[in-house]
Amino acid sequence: MKRAFYVGRFQPFHYGHEKILSTIAEEVDEVVIGIGSAQKSHTPRDPFTAGERIEMVLKSLENFPIRHYIIPLQDVEYNALWVPHVKSMSPKFDVAYSNNPLVIQLFTEAGIEVRRPAMHERSIYSGTAVRNSMIESKNREWAEFVPPTVAEVIDEINGICRIKRVAGNDD
């Protein structure tokens, strides 16, 4: 059995993340999904809490084809300690997936295989683009970038109002 680790901030979880996880599911038996920067929320860059992001991912993956674990990971301000922190918070894993240069470097130095999944239409499916759409749109254009279950969570928590307020653009 092979288990992977994949970390993201998921601010919010979008179709690009879903596509990467589908790719991972084709290569391994289980995946640990790390909710990065778990301590951050209520800012334009990080509007959602760790619990809200866990709910987004969990609901989006209800029919996911492999076993998955979701863990919150607070930032560690000392990069050399980040991989040991991840390992202490996660079930054991064999391979990590990332395109983040720092994450790749830290896992590589720790002797963990790192695979770089293809990004799915990165110019469209990025957290920054989705958050900007949330702030700027008058309608629900942002919802086309996220699974319907994520849009439901955002609606339930009044997330659009939150992000507009913390961005200083509440109309």
From TrEMBL:
InterPro entries: Cyt_trans-like (IPR004821), NMN_Atrans_arc (IPR006418), Rossmann-like_a/b/a_fold (IPR014729). The keyword Repressor does not apply. It is an enzyme of class 2 (transferase). It holds the Pfam family CTP_transf_like. Belongs to the archaeal NMN adenylyltransferase family. Residues 5-132 form the Cytidyltransferase-like domain. One of its GO terms (biological process) is NAD+ biosynthetic process. SUPFAM superfamilies: Nucleotidylyl transferase. Coiled coil: none annotated. It is found in: Cytoplasm. One of its GO terms (cellular component) is cytoplasm. Keywords: ATP-binding, Cytoplasm, Hydrolase, NAD, Nucleotide-binding, Nucleotidyltransferase, Pyridine nucleotide biosynthesis, Transferase. The lineage of its organism: Archaea, Methanobacteriati, Methanobacteriota, Stenosarchaea group, Methanomicrobia. Its EC number is 2.7.7.1. The keyword NAD applies. This is Nicotinamide-nucleotide adenylyltransferase.
